[in-house]
Each structure stands twice: as structure tokens, then as C-alpha cells.
Amino acid sequence: MVNQFFEALWQQYMAITPQAAAIHQLLAERGEQPVNDHVALRTFGTDKLGLKALIPLIETLGYRVKGDYEFTAKKLTAVHFEHQDDPNHPKIFLSQLIIESLPDDLQAIVAGLDAQVAPEKTGKLDFLFSGRPWDLSFADYIQLLQVSEYAAWTAAFGYRANHFTVSINHLLTFFEIEMLNTFLLDQGFQLNESGGQVKGTPEQLLEQSSTLADMVHVEFSDTDHTIPGCFYEFAKRYPQSNGRLYQGFIAASADKIFESTDNKKPV
Ligand code: OOG
Ligand code: NI
């Protein structure tokens, strides 16, 4: 069931993220078999769609919440999950936008999206890879974008992984994150430079980098546009004093990873 869940998310992600297949291919040519460290999903913090509503879905897979995070400037909160029986299953990072912190006009847009979701839909696991469950106009997308890039992305793409993450610990031919970054840049991929190419330090037990999101053609209810979609992340974890690799996330780094979808202007 867990594997099927990640396979569904992966197929959905690959369909709009050509760089993911390209990076996989390049790694495979070096004899690598990438292992996924985690995926991240986004949502609106309403009663129907917020963390409280979605956490139980992920728990049905045997996952448990292991950490919570707050991003004050971006008006987000988040949790991360680890699998209770099998630590080799990828972790899941789930964040939500605090709706009450938005200006009234944007709260009204989000309420309009939320109202389009039948309550019974959010009770099933496949909701998490169902894509966008509402109609959205480009005008509303732009209005959200002016205040919260996260709100605009979530409105446009809905329920899907916004990134998968290559575990550098499992790579055979890359040891340092800088080495992988150089390889990706040489191959023509663009990296998220917010907070520097490498986010986090060995002392924090987690180093991360990410590409900039691929641009995706999206059908809005009024006109079609091409906007930033999903990206790829790379993570290297370090052992804790008990010898086990650190499994959490670093809020200051995550804050910058969010900006991997804030790269290019819609066209
Ligand atoms: C999640 C950003 C945080 C990480 O690895 O720190 C994250 C997002 O962009 O939705 O994935
Ligand atoms: Ni991530």
C-alpha cells in the first residue's frame, strides 16, 4: 500500500516534471539507483483541507507525525511523518497555509476553492494525488501570487507531491552535496539559490539543495498559462550521537526550499 501510494505520486509528478526523468536518466547512466528521501505536499489550512483533516489519511499508511514546524513569514505550519514500522519508507512533509493570516479578499478566494471540494473526497487516500479539485481563474491565481506564492501554487496544482528527493546517502558516486550540485549545473539544470545552493550544515545533520521548478502549462478557467510547477531536491543526512541518521527537517532550510517554486514569472 505504501509503495503504491508513492508510485501514484511519482507518476503524477513525472508527468509534469521532465527534469525528474532527465536527472534519473543521468544518474542511471552512472550506475546509480536513486532512493527517495521524502516527498512534500501542500494544502490550505481550512477545516476540510488542513493538516487536521489530512494527517489521518497519511496515518492509514502506517506513518506517524514526528516533527512540527512553523514558518511565520510565509504564514505556514507543517509536520513531517516517518513510517512506524519501516524506516526505509520515504518521509512525508506536509504543510498548510494559515488562512486567517491572509487579507480578506484572499480568504474569500480560498473559501471559494474549498467550497468546491465534496467533503467525502478528502476522506480517501487517493485525494492526496488527485491534483486540483477546483476550478481556478488565472485572475485569482495572480491575486494569490501577489501575497503568497505558496497559496498560488497550491491553488494551481492542488494535491500532488511538489518534489521528490534524491537521498545522497544512497548514491554510490557522489559523496558531497557540492559534487552533485556541480554535476547538475554542468548538465544545465538550475538550482534554487535562495539561502545559498546548499541549505543546512553537517552540524545541523542535514544538507539540502534543490532545482528550480519546471514550468508547466496549466489550464485556468479563463485562459491557459505557463507557471512554475514541481522541482527535485537532494538531501544528505548525518548520523546523530546514537549513530542513526537524523530523520527530521530544519525549519530555516525548509523555508528556503519552499522558494524552489518561486523562480520564474508566469507567462
Ligand atoms: C516543502 C519545503 C520543505 C524540505 O525538505 O525542507 C521541504 C515544500 O516546498 O512544500 O521539503
Ligand atoms: Ni523537501
Automatic annotation (TrEMBL):
Pfam families: HGLS. One of its GO terms (molecular function) is dioxygenase activity. Keywords: Dioxygenase, Iron, Oxidoreductase. Its cofactor is Fe(2+). The keyword Oxidoreductase applies. It is an enzyme of class 1 (oxidoreductase). InterPro entries: HGLS. Its EC number is 1.13.11.93. Belongs to the 2-oxoadipate dioxygenase/decarboxylase family. This is 2-oxoadipate dioxygenase/decarboxylase. It comes from Marinicella pacifica.
